[in-house]
Amino acid sequence: MKCAWVVIAALIFSNVVAAQKTSQPRSGKSTQQKANGTVTGPDVLITVHGSLVLNTSKKLSVADADSDKDDPNVIDFFLSKKIEVLDGDKKLKPSDLKVGAPVAVDARRLLDGSLEAITVRVDHGK
To answer: Is the pTM of this model over 0.70?
Structure first.
């Protein structure tokens, strides 16, 4: 009878260990919730509204619309090859954006902490 209990205990233990291994998220692929309630991860987008202060082939810099006009908070975004630039329904190239233009940038945070622009829209509302 002791042998049967040992076998049952071994089966239960092996199932628990197997369940723990399969329930862990893959590194870098999941969205995580921090203790303060904010959600982070590669699929979470942020949107920044402001005016374009720098436009190069690899980088955009935007002065945040909510920051102080005398000392603006400038946010840098790296451009991916899949970036989408829109003026209403019209698709543009990133080089078509002019410095000073009001824009809204949807971006995601990369593993190194930098921001990658996904969509840039000319913000006619501001």
So the answer is: no
